[in-house]
Design a protein that fits this description.
Distance between the termini: 53 Å
Structural class: alpha/beta
Number of helices: 19
Number of strands: 15
Strand content: 15-25%
Helix content: 25-40%
Strand order of the largest sheet: 3-2-1-4-15
Largest sheet: 5 strands, parallel
């Protein structure tokens, strides 16, 4: 039977942490919402119905023990709540910030279905882990007895970092190789600070480094070493590079100056936030200050771009998307945040050409309409005749999603099997690639996806790699 701390959803309303006023938050890259105070966190956690079938956990890729740590939070047992949350996730405070809870745990909360508003799961998750960092409850990685075997991980994004932590706990020597000068992948350079402040990522990476995980930054496989050379150094390898190749647009004028890729734009902004020298930002190439900005796309990356442009002082920001609001892939919460901050959405519209001889001056677009469902079940957009129009633009940002790079060519090994989409082909049971002892996880296998899925894949692949290395050690003995 539930105790007095729980089942308060009828008498107590849903309350997220207060967001700063849109005009104020658009002036900086701080996170837009403050954290719960202890009483508010306990009160909101106490709204959980403790249902027999916790759909929140079922729909969480990590299958976090959500009702259990909500109960512990409601009872004031915050350290226990953190420890339980941390038992299934290597980055709970990061998931609490950037997961699309409206599509996952909160969107499937039973009391949401009853009309009472979902439990604010993500905000409570963020609260208990931030509290743990403040109170010193986040312990060092518990490194297991040394096994005398080493692991090489290519990619320091969420999948690679998650696998690295689990494998280090098992006693393996772990080396992580990444092309960037800081670890974290898209957590560091792709996601803006107003969604994920960078100290939150850096403290996780520092914790891993303190555990003896060796980070080789500014290291490109294929340039600094071939994959075969790395395989000779390590007992097993993991490829967790993510997908970084931007999807293109085929339209006249797309190569004009001022038409840029989303990731280049976001990386420049995040580097500037770190205090790096960023010539392309300083000369205005990747800076929206004073410009009329058009962002093309409707996913979370597009939302990151439009909200970054607002903070850089753009004269206007428009988001051009070929479907309607109900069919966009990005988080509806992010759309609402963007609208509050002054972004204009131009729904059911697609670019046809980019004006400007030397530098882009505008976008020629056409209205779209939704036709019959495509293979995915979504209604496919089609051109609405007679719907042509123009938008002024000094900066156009292409945010159409990402595809896999040609890893066999980049890594210098033709034996690495890929799918027709360019992602790595892996065995469904072992997560191993076509190369013996080389595993793969995260977006480079499943395609562009969510951070939480990358963390899940990192956890799963670490178990498979551990089993494979144990078998290898037994054979050697």
């Amino acid at each position: 039977m539930a105790d007095d701390a729980m089942l308060k959803f009828v008498a107590r309303g849903q309350e997220y942490p207060a967001k700063r006023e849109a005009e104020l938050r658009a002036e900086d890259f701080r996170e837009i919402a403050e954290r719960y105070a202890v009483p508010e966190a306990e009160a909101q956690a106490g709204r959980c119905s403790q249902c027999g079938v916790p759909y929140c956990s079922v729909h969480c890729p990590l299958h976090n023990h959500i009702p259990d740590w909500l109960r512990l939070t409601a009872e004031g047992r915050l350290r226990e709540a953190y420890e339980l949350s941390n038992s299934t996730s290597t980055m709970p405070e990061i998931c609490g910030r950037i997961c699309p809870q409206d599509r996952l745990c909160e969107g499937n909360c039973v009391i949401e279905f009853s009309g009472h508003g979902a439990v604010t799961i993500g905000s409570v998750e963020k609260f208990i882990t931030d509290k743990a960092w403040e109170e010193g409850w986040v312990e060092p990685v518990r490194v297991g007895p040394a096994r005398g075997q080493s692991v090489g991980i290519i990619g320091a994004g969420p999948a690679g970092l998650s696998a690295a932590e689990y494998l280090r706990e098992l006693g393996y020597d772990v080396h992580v190789y990444d092309r960037h000068d800081r670890a974290g992948g898209l957590l560091t350079y792709g996601i803006p600070g107003f969604k994920l402040e960078k100290h939150v990522v850096m403290r996780r990476i520092e914790r891993l480094a303190e555990a003896g995980i060796v980070f080789h930054t500014s290291f490109e496989v294929g340039r600094d070493a071939s994959i075969d050379e790395l395989r000779a150094k390590h007992d097993t390898m993991l490829i967790a590079t993510g997908v970084y190749k931007a999807r293109g647009i085929k339209a006249p004028g797309v190569g004009a100056e001022g038409v840029v890729e989303a990731l280049d734009y976001l990386t420049a902004s995040n580097r500037k936030g770190f205090g790096d020298s960023v010539p392309a930002y300083d000369d205005g190439s990747l800076n929206a200050d004073g410009k009329h900005v058009v962002v093309i796309g409707g996913g979370d990356t597009a939302m990151d771009c439009v909200r970054t442009a607002i903070r850089q002082g753009a004269a206007s920001v428009k988001c051009l998307y070929r479907r309607d609001r109900a069919n966009m892939p990005g988080s509806q919460r992010e759309v609402a945040n963007a609208e509050e901050e002054g972004v204009e959405f131009v729904w059911l519209s697609a670019p046809e050409a980019f004006d400007g001889s030397d530098k882009v001056t505008g976008v020629r677009a056409t209205k779209m309409r939704l036709g019959a469902p495509d293979a995915s079940g979504r209604r496919a957009p089609e051109v609405d005749p007679g719907g042509a129009f123009q938008l002024q633009a000094d900066l156009v940002i292409k945010a159409l999603g990402f595809e896999a790079e040609d890893l066999p060519r980049l890594f210098g090994t033709e034996g690495l099997g890929v799918t027709r989409w360019g992602t790595l082909r892996t065995d469904g049971k072992s997560m191993m690639t076509s190369l013996d002892g080389v595993f793969a996880a995260g977006d480079i296998v499943r395609g562009a996806s969510l951070v939480v899925w990358a963390i899940r894949d990192g956890r799963d692949v670490a178990a498979h790699m551990h089993a494979w290395m144990r078998a290898k050690a037994k054979v050697a003995a």
